[in-house]
Each structure stands twice: as structure tokens, then as C-alpha cells.
Design a protein that fits this description.
The chain has 181 residues and is an alpha+beta fold. It has 8 helices and 3 strands. α3 packs across α6 and α7 runs antiparallel to α8. The mean pLDDT is 80.
Length: 181
């Protein structure tokens, strides 16, 4: 025995087409990874917390690689204005800003993977890098020997302008007295 619909076949075809394009969808999509789900839960409980900038600074060279680590460093991780995700601010030297700009997507993915955070955007600011640790020691100077002083004075005798002669003499002394490492 064949069951027939009480609806018109044309109406039935229209209903199938409507269902094909208007299926119910989840209100919130499922997280892609367990780490992302954990971060979503943690962010609800601790909204001001996130991937720590201190930990990121420690792992920066391993995350972005040797070449990028020489020219840029993480500055801060802040909340995005749009509500979802975080914004990583990277400080770089001005000469390398174009190279860092082209690597922002790679940096974003690597930082998100390494710290388990949801970095949405990478912003670049230009300026001098503030490397942690001890500053470089100034180079030591040694005194000039009398022979070196005489040779230097003899080499600048032909210069007529007194200010220029004095400047070149000071430059020569600075070059000769600085010890090579």
C-alpha cells in the first residue's frame, strides 16, 4: 500500500527547498579545540586574565624565531574592542616594521598556539627595543702612548682650519684608545 501525502506535490517541493536553506543552527558554535574551550571558560571566570605577557616575553625567541626576535618584542596583550579575542601589541624597530607587518598572521597563530590564547589581532608600534637584562658595559679606554700622540699630531699638521684639526684629532684619539673586544 502506498501512502500519499495530503499536501499538493508542488507545496511539498517548496517545503523541502525551504528546509534545505533554513535549517536550525546552534546558537553558539562548538569550540575547535579543547584549549579554546578552556580559555573561554577561564575568561568568563577571570575576564582580566589571559596569556601572561611575562611568559610570552620568556618564550618569544622560541615562538617567532631568531630573525624576528632580533627586531621585535611583545609589548602587551590587551582586550579587543570587539569583545572577542585579545590584541597583541608588538614593538619593533622602525627599519623592520614592514617585515614584521608581513609576518603578523604567522605571529598571531604561533602565539595563540603556544599560549593557548585567542589572539585576534597583532598591532605593531615602532620604537627602540627594551631588552631585559643588564645593559652593555661601556668600552674601556686605554691611554695613548707618546709615540701614538706624536704620530697623530703629525698627521693633522697639514689641516689649516683649527676647528677641523681639533675635531679630527679628537676622532683619532677616540679610535686609537678604544680597546677591541
Amino acid at each position: 500500500m502506498v501512502n500519499r501525502s495530503s499536501l499538493d506535490p508542488l507545496e511539498e517541493a517548496r517545503a523541502r527547498v525551504m528546509l534545505r536553506y533554513q535549517r536550525a543552527r546552534r546558537e553558539r558554535p562548538l569550540p575547535k579545540t579543547f584549549g579554546a574551550a578552556a580559555m573561554q571558560l577561564a575568561r568568563k571566570k577571570l575576564p582580566e586574565k589571559g596569556p601572561a605577557i611575562g611568559r610570552l616575553k620568556l618564550l618569544w625567541r622560541d615562538i617567532v624565531g631568531e630573525q624576528l626576535a632580533k627586531v621585535c618584542e611583545p609589548e602587551k596583550i590587551g582586550a579587543s574592542g570587539k569583545g572577542k579575542g585579545r590584541v597583541l601589541t608588538v614593538k619593533c624597530i622602525p627599519a623592520a616594521s614592514t617585515m614584521v607587518q608581513h609576518q603578523t598572521e604567522t605571529i598571531r597563530q604561533r602565539v595563540g598556539t603556544s599560549l593557548g590564547g585567542d589572539i585576534r589581532e597583532v598591532r605593531i608600534i615602532q620604537g627602540p627595543l627594551t631588552r631585559g637584562g643588564t645593559p652593555a658595559l661601556p668600552k674601556r679606554k686605554r691611554p695613548l702612548t707618546p709615540e701614538e700622540q706624536e704620530r697623530l699630531a703629525h698627521s693633522v699638521e697639514g689641516i689649516e682650519d683649527a676647528a677641523l684639526r681639533k675635531a679630527i684629532l679628537a676622532l683619532g684619539e677616540a679610535v686609537l684608545t678604544t680597546e677591541q673586544p
